[in-house]
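User: quick one
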Amino acid sequence: MIILVINAGSSSVKFTLFRMEDEAELASGIVGRIGLAGTRLNYKNFKGGNLGKEVFVADAVEAVGIIAGVLTDDRYGVIDGEKDITAVGHRVVHGGEKITDSVIIEDSVKEIIKKCSTLAPLHNPHNFKGIEASERHFPGALQVAVFDTAFHATIPEHAFLYGLPYRLYHQDRIRRYGFHGISHKHVSGEAARFLDMPLDALKLITCHLGNGCSITAVEGGKSIDTSMGFTPLEGLMMGSRCGDLDPAIVLFLMEHKQLGYKEINELLNKQSGLLGVADIGSSDLRDILSAKASGNHQAGIAVKTFTYRIKKYIGAYIAAMGGVDAIVFTAGIGENSPIIRESVCDGLQRTNGLKIILDPEKNKAGNNKLGEIQSCLSRVKILVVPTNEAREIAQQTLQLLQPLEKNGMT
Ligand code: AMP
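Assistant: Done. Structure below.
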């Protein structure tokens, strides 16, 4: 069975084609800079074929047309025709409270995705366009939506409520939703497999540290708390997002700096985090680490602030779960930066009884591959687990299809 995964964003459509019998990645790529000058298709297939070329597309519908074309192309294609694709799995950021799992896309689901655009204006409208484009170009395939918020649907009320008047939750659904759920779920499952333990017997803390960063307490395979909240701005400090903040700072900026909605939005989302604190003109941790190494004080303090907050959340989630069996590092920074992993774990070895102790050599050698990096004296496992959101979407899509297949409905 062949499943196509589509991740449609504001200016790009990413795609991966899987053969599910052996979960082989047949092809993948991106149509980037959609609607801008220099729109490009970058594509590779499992036979070693690589293609990079300028394409002329105005929107997501045309981008998905390009994807359908290259997948079936005489020279670069890997399938005979669109009919070979059984299902298309779409990444959708926000499913609100009503959607708690992956779903086959029907009109009612589309309505919910559209409605949730007010909660995720930068993502849901584009995810929705990707679905419509895919319905047009792959009419014979089943369309499935896999939501970033769904994994966090198990967070209990006491953890998802803010200390605001209850009516704001009741009427306006202002609450913690959580994001990066596809990644947190994926690495939780991979960690359990690696540890050879049933997921429902484990207490995990999964640290997704990329351009966006979030951390989740996963108890018995279920998210019970996560650092991102009503929007992906809350929680850890990120590349250019501030994370947790005293809300009175916003009031101060309005009253004393005369900043309006747009400027504050830009400041908190685009000018803060590692970018804002280090102030070296880059949000890329590699640049900030090299500035730190050449003695830049602000770069050093940005890294310390970043890792200190991760450590605080780890402490909070140990308290929330009454312990932890494994701490998992994933995404661009989590998978590739031994310095950050070391700085996060520094001091945790003193936690009473828990003994969270990193092995410096295993940590240095542990980049970019599934493995454990704790010392033999550590009671808690410390893992690096590469995330693969596309694969997780394909797996969840397959799970939805299996009952239909048994009934001969695909
Ligand atoms: P992601 O959003 O998961 O693609 O992660 C992107 C971020 O990972 C980049 O902004 C970098 O800051 C970070 N990153 C990638 N490779 C490394 C590395 N070798 N060392 C430190 N940070 C890295």
